[in-house]
Design brief:
Blueprint: E1 2-7, H1 19-22, H2 27-37, E2 42-47, H3 51-61, E3 67-71, H4 80-88, E4 93-97, E5 119-122, H5 127-137
Parallel strand pairs: 1-2, 1-3, 3-4, 4-5
Helix pairs in contact: 3-4
The chain binds 1,3,4-trihydroxy-5-OXO-cyclohexanecarboxylic acid (DQA).
Family: Belongs to the type-II 3-dehydroquinase family.
Subunit structure: Homododecamer.
Protein name: 3-dehydroquinate dehydratase
Length: 138
């Protein structure tokens, strides 16, 4: 089973960035433990700070992979293009967020991704990604 985690802008700074919100683990450290825990999954990871690169990756994997775990980060709240890409593909997308976006600023309450997603998991820290992964294993 091929599943990809796609991370949007600034998530390359996990472990350094606003640690009180996002924790002190780097994504690479977390991703390594996730891969070891789920050896039956062909798990890959892509991160970009560039909106179009995220859209290109969604299109590239979106007709052949079994699942996409997408944290579009700030583009969640702004990108009609990423929202449209999620609706255009066949692979189911689970939207994730590390923080509880509803407990934060108003502008984080709206998502362009959710309407096209199979489901949304947020607020559980990095565990949000693992819960999304488990949803594909059922
Ligand atoms: C985030 C929440 C977004 O509002 C924010 O812009 C991010 C990360 C999260 O995982 O909690 O960069 O998607």
């Amino acid at each position: 089973m091929k599943i990809i985690i796609i991370n949007g802008p600034n998530l390359n700074l996990l472990g350094k960035r606003e640690k009180n919100i996002y924790g002190d683990l780097t994504f690479e450290e977390f991703f390594q433990t996730l891969k070891e825990k789920y050896p039956q999954v062909e798990l890959s990871h892509f991160q970009s700070n560039v909106e179009g690169e995220l859209i290109n990756k969604i299109q590239e994997v979106g007709f052949s992979y079994e699942g996409i775990i997408l944290n579009a980060a700030a583009y969640t709240h702004t990108s009609v293009g990423i929202g449209d890409a999620v609706k255009a593909i066949e692979t189911p997308v689970v939207e994730v967020h590390i923080s509880n976006t509803f407990a934060r600023e108003e502008f984080r309450h709206h998502s362009h991704i959710s309407a096209g997603a199979r489901g949304v998991i947020l607020g559980f820290g990095l565990q949000s990604y693992e819960l999304a992964l488990q949803s594909f294993l059922k």
